[in-house]
Amino acid sequence: MRVVSCAILATVAFASLALSGCATVSKGECQGGDWYGIGVRDGANGYGEERFIDNAKACAKHGITADRERWLDGRVRGLERYCNVRNGLQVGRRNDTYRGVCPLPDEEEFLRGYELGRELHFAHARLSSLDSEINDIRERLRRDREARDAKGEDEEKMKKYRLSDAERVELAYRLGVATVKRDEAVRDCDELEYRARDL
C-alpha cells in the first residue's frame, strides 16, 4: 500500500507542475482595476516586485494604468499566505523556483518546508524512473519468452525479440539491482512523507 501511495503522489506532483501557469493579468482584470486583489494573488504565488511591471505592461496595451501602491499592499497580504512552512513544502514538491520573496523570519520557515518538498520531488522522480526501468526490463524478458515459445509464422515474426543467453543474464541482473534500489526509494519516500506530516 505504501508503494502505491508514493507512486500516486509522484504523479500528482508532476501533474501539478504541468498545470501551473505564469500568465499575467487579462484585459478584464485590467478593466476591473482590483489591483489589491491582483497583488494578493501575485504575492500568494510567490512573485517578486518585477511581476508588477509585467502586469503594468499588459494593461498598458489596453490603455489602462496600473496602481502600484494598491498592488504592493495586496502583495504583502498574499506573501503572508505564501511564506509559511506548509506552502514551502508544496512549492518544493512541485520543484517550483523560489524567488527569494519572503522576509525574515518567515523565509526560514518557508525554506524549511521548501527544502523538504524538493527532497520529496526528487525521491518521487527517482521512484518513477526505477519503475520505468523495471517495467522495460520485464517487458523485454516477457517478449523473449514469447519469442522462444513461438511456432511457425509467429516464430519468424518474434525472432527480433529473442535475447541471447548473455543478454538474458544481464537483464535478470539489472532487474534484481533495480528492484533493490526501488525498495530503497520507497523507504526514502515514506520517510520523507512521514517528516512532511510533522511540519
Percent of residues in beta strands: under 5%
CA(first)-CA(last) distance? 23 Å
Structural category is mainly alpha
Q: How large, in whole angstroms, is the Cα Rg? A: 25 Å
Mean pLDDT: 89
Helicity level, as a percent range?
Answer: over 70%
Order of helices and strands: HHHHHHHHH
Q: Which parts are unreliable, with pLDDT below 50 for 5 consecutive residues or more?
A: 1-21
Helical run tally: 9
The largest pleated sheet is described as: none
**Tally of strands:** 0
Shape verdict: elongated
Oligomer: single chain
Please specify the SSE layout and strand pairing.
Elements: H1 2-19, H2 27-32, H3 35-44, H4 50-60, H5 68-82, H6 85-93, H7 106-149, H8 152-158, H9 165-197
Helix pairs in contact: 1-7, 3-5, 6-7, 7-8, 7-9
Structure notes:
Mean pLDDT is 89; it is low at 1-21. The protein is mostly helical. Helix content is 77%, strand content 0%. Helix 7 (106-149) runs antiparallel to helix 8. The protein has helices spanning 2-19, 27-32, 35-44, 50-60, 68-82, 85-93, 106-149, 152-158, 165-197. The protein contains 9 helices and no strands.
